[in-house]
Every structure is written in structure tokens, then in C-alpha cells.
Amino acid sequence: MALRISLCEYRLLFKRPFGTAHGLRNGTDALFIRVEERGFTGYGEVTLPPYLKETIPGAIDRITSIAGKGPWSADGLLAGLDRLPEFGLNTNGSRAGLHMALLDLMGQRDRVLIKNLLQIDAEQTPITLMTIGICDHQEVPSRLVELPDSGALKLKIGDPDAMDRVKTVKWLDNRMLFLDGNQGYSSVKEVVEVVEGIGTDRIFGIEQPFTAEMDGSNPALARATGIPVYGDESIQSLGDILEVGHLFQGVNVKLMKCGGLDRAAEMIRTARTKGLHVMLGSMSESSLGCTAMAHLGCAADLVDLDGPWLIRNDPFLGLKMENGRMIIPQQPGLGVTLTVDLSFVPIGA
Known about the structure:
Blueprint: E1 4-20, E2 23-37, E3 40-48, H1 56-67, H2 74-80, H3 92-110, H4 114-117, E4 127-132, H5 140-146, E5 152-156, H6 162-172, E6 176-180, H7 188-198, E7 203-207, H8 218-225, E8 229-231, H9 238-244, E9 250-254, H10 255-258, H11 261-273, E10 277-281, H12 287-294, E11 302-303, H13 307-310, E12 316-317, E13 320-322, E14 325-327, E15 337-338, E16 345-347
Parallel strand pairs: 4-5, 4-11, 5-6, 6-7, 7-8, 8-9, 9-10, 10-11
Antiparallel strand pairs: 1-2, 1-16, 2-3, 12-15, 13-14
């Protein structure tokens, strides 16, 4: 029986508008992928914020083209992913989603955990992060109530209200803080002033304060504050780690940017050889995408996979939080459950 591929276009909606230095949005366009073979079903997710060059219509065309080249087997398609011409520039989200679905199916079929399929043998317990996006500081109390307990809080900064918001968080919550600038700053001095206004005793990381063109300023910022600086927009692939990893102390690995769980695992291994801290992030994926990435959490220092707690129409169940710790399904495949009747459309041969 040949592999059957189906697609479902979907829009994930935030409980509250989500603000970053890139702007404010109320949701994120997504594409869910279902693969079926010999009684087993796997799911994958492509979730693309508007500031990425890849689009959902493009992802649909791309995966439809691949499906049309079938019939495929799950093993054959997985082995041939990187030989497909459809996966060129700006297609990492599509590859990540299809790879995720195939790995989910094969893990269930072979009764193997995802981390074992990816040859991850680490056993770390990462610090969990929950995010408060850019918002009026008066909204902070109610946003804090909505979030589950976590090891630390991630705060989006880079806007005029940032200091008032951070001070409110500091007053109401005693967790350590991780600051995400989303490229919103133009000088080391600006960021140092923010850090000094909060106090270095509460901050344990700063993420991508500058644009990639200013990466050379990151070492000076780390020296001035004594706080590790993590790359996000500047480090999206294995090649980026090799090229500019020395300008950071840590890296934020994201599925939609790197192109798949296999590539994420390789980025983690390479980052470790370079002495870099490892953080696992997301593009506000549902429980499907976040649970997939959580299977690599045992090899990371930090996990920022809070999409399921920020989204109000999440169609999957998977990753959980208990007492500030991440609880990952311990079963073959991704371990996610579809909770609503999505309208999947079969494609291909």
C-alpha cells in the first residue's frame, strides 16, 4: 500500500495579540500534513509567521508536487527528501513539516521513540520558558495568570514600553528572566541600559538584540553585561553556526527555520562542539510542532515551546507542563492526539 498524503490549511489564533519587535499579530497561518501507510498515521506541521519568505500557498504547491511524483513509501520519501528539487531556497518549513509527519508514522510503526530515531542520547533537564510578548504593562498581571508555572520567563523587548513591562513582571514574579530583543536595538549601550535597569541578578540570557549586520557587537554586549547572548535570526542553519557561532554564547534552534528534526539534532550536536548553549524555540506552532521539538529537549539547556499555552484553537494535544517541568509523551512517534475533525484533502498519486 502506497503512502497517502493529505493536507489541511489552518489558522492558529492567539488568545491575545502577540507582539514582538517584528510587529503585532493575532494568529499564524499553518498547514497540517497527514501521512498514512499500512494502518499507521503520522502528522506534521508547517507554521509560517508573515515575516518569513516562505508561504502556506507555496508549501501546499510544493508538497502537492512531491506527492504527485509518487507512489511513495514512507521510508523512500524520507530517504529522498534532500534530493527533491522542490526543497530549494526558502522551503525549510515545508521540509520540516513533511519530515515530522514521516518520522511520526515510522516511530509508531517501528515502536521507536523520536529521540532514538534521531540518535539523541543526552539526558538533560532543560529550563522551561513561557513568553510574555510586547504589550501594555497594565496587561502583565492577567497574562501571568494565564501561563503555567515554568522555570523562567521570556520577555519580548525592543519597544518603548519595554522597561515598564519588565519592571511590572519583576515586581509580580520571582522567576529568572530571559530577554528577547528580536533585532530591536541599534547599539550595545541601549541594551546595557535595559539590563542595568532590571539588574543582572535576574537575567540569564539575551536573545538576538541586533540585526545580523550587527552580529559583531554581540561579544561586546556579553562582556559588558556578563550575560550570554543567543542567536536566533542570525543562526538558522548548521552553516550559520559554523560561520557566526563564535559571535554568540548560545543558539536558538527552530524547526521552521532549520528544516526538520534531523537538521535540528545536527545543529545541537555542532553547537555543543563549539561550546554554545542550546535553546529550542518555535514559531508559535501548535501542540503538534512544539511536541515534535520537545523530543529533543533532553539535549538542550532551555526550551521555549509555549505555543500550546498561547493559542486558543490548538487542534492537538501532546506536550504538557507540570510543576515547571516539561512532560513529553513517552510513546512511539510524536505522541500527539488530534482532538478536532480537521478537513484533510488527499493529494498526489
